[in-house]
Amino acid sequence: MSTFSGQTASSPDGNASSNGTPAASGAVDHGRDGHKPLQDTSVGKAAAGPVKWLDDRVGMAGLVRKNLRKVFPDHWSFMLGEIALWSFVVLLLSGVFLTLWFKPSMTEVVYTGSYAPLNGLEMSEAYASTLDITFEVRGGLLMRQIHHWAANLFLAAMLVHMLRIFFTGAYRRPRETNWLVGLGML
Fold first, then answer.
1. Which residues, including other chains, have CB under 8 Å from residue 141's CB and lie 6 or more apart?
2. Around 14, how many Cα atoms within 13 Å sit in the side-chain half-sphere?
3. What does the pLDDT look like over 129-149, one tens digit per residue?
């Protein structure tokens, strides 16, 4: 076969080298991505024997493979629901931490905290406690920022997840209840 601008020539048996000449018959194939294929190990062979024997009698490999594809889908858009779930968990945990120091009172107080530009000003006790969390509680500003970004990520992931569900038609029967619950959460 001939070569054109950087392509390699193949021999009749399919072996090729980078200079266009046929590769040696004992050449190692590194696969399409250039990595060596995994080598069989004695442990792998030993484990494969009983597993194959059990699968020949029970026939569960196809069922397990099918169910694992449902648990671990192969498209990135299926991760949006999990991103929303885990950002909600972070939101709850950081919210519990912030609740320990926040005072939700609208009572007017004079600020006497460590943030000098606001010292001596009247403000609500809620705002003063927020400043105290930020400047006086160890890790308070970090927790406020984590809470803030988890809330933003949660809403964005929920919105994109709901759009994916809508445009792919995944809200239809038997999942219409899940769709209504998701809409209610937004």
1. 133, 134, 135
2. 2
3. 999 999 999 999 999 999 999
Of the listed ranges 21-25, 82-86, 115-119, 177-181, the least confidently predicted one is: 21-25
Tell me the domains of the chain and their CATH numbers: 42-71 (no CATH), 76-185 (1.20.810.10)
Question: Which two structure tokens, joined as six digits, stand for 53?
Answer: 């024997």
Nearest to 164 by CA among 42, 102, 79, 105: 79
- Which token pair is 161? 């997840």
